[in-house]
Amino acid sequence: MNLREAEEGKEYIIQQINTDDDELNAFLFSLGCYSGETITVIAHRKGGCTVSIKDGRYNIDTRLAEAIIV
Q1: Is the CB of residue 67 less than 8 Å from the CB of residue 5?
Q2: What residues have CB less than 8 Å from 20, skipping those under 6 apart?
Q3: What are phi and psi of 48, to 5 degrees?
Q4: Exposed (0-12), middle (13-18) or buried (19+): which is 9, by Cβ within 10 Å?
Q5: What pTM, to 2 d.p., does this model score?
Q6: How does pLDDT run across 1-26, given as a tens digit for each residue?
Q7: Which of 3, 26, 28, 52 would give a disulfide with 33, using CB separation of 3.0 to 4.6 Å?
Q8: Looking at domain 3-69, which of 2.40.70.10, 1.10.3720.10, 3.90.226.10, 2.30.30.90 is its CATH number?
């Protein structure tokens, strides 16, 4: 399942990230968003969702939320 399908408030483990963009992968890695890391969906929004990774909260768009498999 991807982050768009995930329940709010539940903690998940990232299984993989399906992007072909190396720059985007490096950016996500710098945020702590990589395989094996825990992620929590705080809220689903119209244009994406708000997630918690480690000690930070981030807004990600729908396309990226669909690329993160949990």
Answers
A1: no
A2: none
A3: 160, -135
A4: exposed
A5: 0.86
A6: 999 999 999 999 999 999 888 998 88
A7: 28
A8: 2.30.30.90
